[in-house]
Amino acid sequence: MEIRHFRYFLAVARQRNFTRAAEQLGIAPPTLSRQIQDMETELGARLFIRQQREVGLTEAGAALLTEAEATVRQFEFAQRNAQRAGRGEIGHIEMGYVASAVYCGLLQRQMQAFTQAFPDISVNVRECAMATLTAAVADGRCDIGYIRSPMTLPDGVEAVRLDSEGFVLALPQDSWLLGLKAIHCEHLQNETFILPEQISGTLHVAAQGGFAPRLGPQPGGLVAVVALVSLGQGVAVVPASMVGHVSLPGVVYRPVQGNDATSWLSLIHRRFEKAPAVVRYIQRVKIGV
């Protein structure tokens, strides 16, 4: 038997008449009658008591009715879900992000807009170290990720460029640099630099100041970087969005005069992504760029 046989059976059971059921189904009454007879032959039981004007259910037919209704409902539900999944309306996304995507508010805005538009797509979000996040997207452990660029990406992974911003200097509150009216790149040549995961800002400041930076620890996330600054371990060149979002005792943020370095957030994804829900998210982000 096929799912159509259950639909034929239900139509007759509801209409209690072969002619009316055939009209509802859009088939000829003799065809419907043969299909029901085929069901009865396969089941080895009569399903209907045939009378001149109406038909009634036999005991076997009554037993089949509830199960047939549930089977058709489940089939239609599965069919609709498959169609919706194919259109990218339902599904699941594994997403990773670096902390600065949250500090600047970009991740919140894009996530909120997406989940409002597609409430049946579940998104599992977790903070990741940037180096491991790019690898996780490449090997499929994450579907998409928010990183801070510029950064070299693995083969098969590409980036959508998003918001850009400049850098500021995070200083211990007792730093001699705070006594200057303006801090220039060359003033930093004797400082120890605490390194965030994205080191391009540090390297750019050093290049503009004409010195090789004295490199300190690279503790990972930006909060860990600023925490070491607060403990007097050095200074750090961090994204400007940190100001007003990450405030630790003993840390002061200052601009560096003449420093024109920028970084930007990127959405990274596999180049030939095929999962409809993931493709839908990428498309939505690109539209908003």
UniProtKB/TrEMBL annotation:
Pfam entry (one): HTH_1
The residues covered by the HTH lysR-type domain are 1-58
Q: Which SUPFAM superfamilies match?
A: Periplasmic binding protein-like II (SSF53850), Winged helix' DNA-binding domain (SSF46785)
Entry's Gene Ontology cellular component terms: protein-DNA complex
Source taxon at top rank: Bacteria
Q: Which residues form the signal peptide?
A: none
Q: Which UniProt keywords apply?
A: DNA-binding, Transcription, Transcription regulation
- Family affiliation: Belongs to the LysR transcriptional regulatory family.
**Protein name per UniProt:** LysR family transcriptional regulator
Q: What is the lineage of its organism?
A: Bacteria, Pseudomonadati, Pseudomonadota, Gammaproteobacteria, Pseudomonadales
